[in-house]
Design a protein that fits this description.
CATH topology of the largest domain: Muramoyl-pentapeptide Carboxypeptidase, domain 2
Number of strands: 5
Shape: elongated
Helix content: 55-70%
Number of helices: 10
Radius of gyration: 34 Å
Largest sheet: 5 strands, antiparallel
CATH class of the largest domain: Alpha Beta
Structural class: alpha+beta
């Protein structure tokens, strides 16, 4: 809008300058020089008043304001026409925007550009995917990439409802890129968290009640391809998937473990105050 108004002002001034006669141009130039002289005089008076007393500053302000008002009143018709010319396009743009509904908030734009984000804003509810066969989680490959995976909880009902909704929306977004997601672990009991912490920092640095897993606000996920889990980021296909997964998760307000010092590409959590000390 600002650029439109500025362009309009330049066009009006340029067109008006070429339309008026030479006598009027000379008169305008004299007024501009007079105004510049008045501005310089006003600036000098203000400087002297500032370094002087407060009473002198007050008197100067009244005097300058009166002189300025007198000049504006003498040229009231010209000022009114100028104000009308410059106010007209702004009024038209505001009125047109109000009637057409063209003014959009950030959320409106996000909904139009990303249908998945729109689903979050609309409160769409999704159904968890069908559970994978138990034997998928006990293969040697899965055990290498995730310790104690066989005994992990994958019950969606134990997850916080809001976190579950956002995670399912991320899963659906990943499907649009050809990635089928698998929940490796959701809720984690304090006893299990304590046991995993005892295995060493390469597994987890969080003790009991120090992880969002204990509150149903975190989940570890991986990819399911050709009947098996693909967990390791050493697979280029999986690494690209994790980047997408992290981007979508963060767009829904989740924290992704791929940015941590000890990177956990499949981990996301919904952080809430007072949930973890």
């Amino acid at each position: 809008m600002f650029l439109l108004v500025l362009t309009y002002a330049v066009v009006v001034v340029a067109a008006g300058w070429h339309v008026i006669d030479r006598t009027r141009r000379t008169s305008i130039q004299k007024r501009i020089r007079s105004s510049a002289s008045f501005g310089a005089e006003w600036t000098g008076i203000c400087i002297r008043a500032v370094v002087g007393s407060p009473r002198e500053l007050w008197r100067t302000a009244i005097s300058v304001s009166a002189r300025f008002a007198e000049r504006v009143w003498r040229r009231r018709r010209t000022v009114a026409v100028a104000m009308l010319l410059f106010a007209a396009p702004v009024s038209v743009l505001i009125a047109f925007g109000s009637l057409s509904g063209s003014h959009q908030s950030f959320d409106d734009l996000a909904m139009q550009q990303n249908p998945v984000v729109a689903a979050v804003l609309d409160g769409e509810q999704l159904v968890p995917p069908a559970a994978l066969p138990p034997e998928v989680f006990v293969t040697r490959e899965a055990s290498v990439d995730r310790m104690e995976l066989a005994t992990a909880s994958r019950e969606w009902l134990k997850l916080d409802p809001e976190f579950k909704r956002r995670l399912l929306l991320v899963f659906r977004a990943m499907e649009n890129h050809g990635y089928r997601m698998a929940l490796l672990e959701g809720y984690r009991s304090p006893e299990r968290q304590r046991m995993l912490a005892q295995l060493g920092p390469h597994v987890t640095n969080a003790g009991a009640f120090q992880s969002y897993h204990q509150f149903g606000l975190a989940a570890d996920s991986a990819f399911y391809r050709d009947g098996r889990l693909v967990i390791s980021e050493k697979d280029p296909w999986a690494m690209e998937g994790y980047r997408l997964y992290g981007a979508y998760a963060e767009s829904f307000g989740l924290t992704w473990g791929g940015h941590w010092q000890m990177r956990d590409f499949g981990h996301v959590e919904l952080r809430r105050k007072h949930a973890v000390p």
